[in-house]
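Case study 2.
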Amino acid sequence: MNEQALSLFLELLRSAIWNKPAVEELFQGAGSSVWEELFNLANSQGVIALLYDGIMTLPAACRPEKKLLYKLFLKTEAIERLNRKLNEELKHLAAAYDRMGCSFVLLKGQGNATLYPRPEHRSPGDIDLFLYRKEDYWRANEWARRKGYKMDAENIHHRSFDINGVHVENHKKISYFGIRRYDRLLESEIGEIIRNNRFVELEIDDLKVAVLPPEFNAFYIFYHLFHHFIHLGVGLRQFCDWVLFMHAYSERMEKAVIAELAREFDLSEAIALFASVAVKYLGARPEVFPFTVDPEGSWVDMVMDDILKGGNFGYTTFEKSSYRGKWDAKWHRFTYSAARTRRISAIAPHHINRLPVIKIVTNLKLLFNK
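Prediction:
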């Protein structure tokens, strides 16, 4: 991507997430090839509706040609429809689970959408529900099975199914490190939240749901994006989620708690690095992060370059690849991830150096649990 296209893309993204007009002088004379590049990048990053929002703050003379603008409009409309569909299915699930007495906590996803100036323009994914009581987890899965929903094999920390075109993940654990020390620490932190009922209420489209307490949620949303970053890559959609969460809850969180969680999980340097990337490229305010921010740090440009090249969940890296079957695809991604490990290990060595072994052990567990 050329420097002009990148500069324009980031300006439009900042315009959308901070709800401010883009600097129109930057777009004067931008040609159709540049606009096509911006469209393709936004699409690969899962921020296409945000690009549209940024463009619509520009005067008509600075916008792309009508054909591309209409294409963006249609993509944005599709995202709006999908968000409405997910919110409706969330309401139906909440009612069904309530009838069974199954308590759940909403993770990420539609909860993160509320952080955006226009929640309906965040590209949606799955519905992730944490059923923190073991019996509720099994009952919810049995309910889905009896309903005839297509169910996937159980993963290390969740089981998923499709309902009316929406993918739902019932979580028995909120995440999985694959490193005993961190998994035990995670269970301890979550156990304390459950015992003291420290979940908080969030309203989404007239539905009130439980979510994680803000300090732990700030750490959890970061770890989710970091988990994907160290495995195959992560896109700007997940990165914007975390940055907007930190801004939205900055005055309502005990930031020392977030810093302590990062220290306990050996992620202080990694989270400070991503905060630095957010300040340099997304226009985040340094003071919302309880870490020393260094926008000119040695890894900052490398991380942003990796995000831009990899796309949403790193999928852009593999979009032109072809495989002989499922195991060939797994092997290809494993070898890519192993090589990636060597390149980025200094960012969080306790988590990254053991990654190839963790991947092998996790796949063996899944294979023999079938």
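The chain has three domains: 1-64, 82-212, 214-370.
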